[in-house]
Design goal:
By secondary structure, the protein is α+β, with helices and mostly antiparallel strands. The chain has five helices and nine strands. The longest helix has 35 residues. The chain is 23% helix and 13% strand. A five-stranded mixed beta sheet has the order 5-3-4-6-7, with helices on one face. Strands 1-2 form a two-stranded antiparallel ribbon. A two-stranded antiparallel ribbon has the order 8-9.
């Protein structure tokens, strides 16, 4: 039993990694199918008085109400996957029940520099406006589109420790994170996010990434860290910014 149990645990963990990778692949396919039909990728978030099928995702006290990117591609992703749960990460480690039941928390995030928001809390113009098309992304094979994430939208601003991001409000998207990123240990986190944010989801604190050219890869979470140097911010490939 001492030999068998660790082996079974490792097999289950690897199975979750494979399923997570498959989920991101199918979500990426759904985004591409949407883009092919509409000549642009969907909004990361679009506030509207008309709720998506099934109602607004999330909780009113924690999340903005509107259509999220996965609502826009739900028909496409179902065609691609044949299942409805591709947006739920099997390896998420959320312990707070309200966050655990919230589809916006601890699953997959779309790069808001690409799938921009119709409106937003961020003052940075790069995250608000018309979403891009794949043709707008010069280095699509190096630019992340979908990734394991603490929230349904993610930006490079959530992967840098300068300036630090504090709770400061009841809106969870302000504290989005990349699971396993080293700087998360120093950040403000919502109760129940600690294990997911600090310890990560996959072996060696890795994350699955769907790129803007459609391929999928698993990389170290810290490869997505955005470093500040003399007022400039930069990171290694994969790229956050579509340039």
């Amino acid at each position: 039993m001492a030999i068998l149990v660790p082996s079974l645990q490792n097999s289950r963990q690897q199975a979750r990694v494979v399923l997570c990778r498959s989920n991101i692949k199918q979500l990426t396919v759904g985004l591409f199918m949407y883009e092919s039909e509409n000549q642009t990728l969907p909004y990361g978030f679009h506030d509207t008085l008309t709720p998506p099928p099934g109602g607004y995702p999330g909780y009113f006290q924690y999340d903005r109400t509107g259509w999220w990117w996965f609502n826009h591609i739900s028909d496409y992703s179902r065609k691609a996957t044949g299942r409805k749960r591709a947006v739920w990460c099997p390896s998420r480690r959320i312990n707070n029940k309200k966050l655990k039941d919230n589809i916006l928390c601890g699953n997959y995030g779309v790069n808001q520099s690409i799938c921009k928001s119709f409106s937003g809390r961020q003052s940075r113009a790069e995250f608000i406006g018309t979403p891009l098309s794949i043709a707008d992304i010069l280095h699509a094979g190096q630019t992340l589109l979908v990734v394991d994430s603490g929230y349904s939208m993610i930006t490079w601003w959530h992967a840098t420790d300068v300036p630090s991001i504090t709770l400061g409000s009841t809106i969870i998207e302000d504290t989005a994170y990349i699971p396993g990123l080293k700087i998360n240990a120093e950040r403000d986190l919502w109760p129940g996010q600690e294990q997911d944010a600090i310890n990560g989801r996959h072996p060696n604190k890795s994350v699955n990434v769907g790129y803007a050219d459609g391929h999928i890869n698993r990389i170290k979470a810290d490869d997505l860290f955005v470093e500040e140097n003399g007022g400039n911010y930069s990171n290694r490939s994969p790229l956050w910014l579509p340039k």
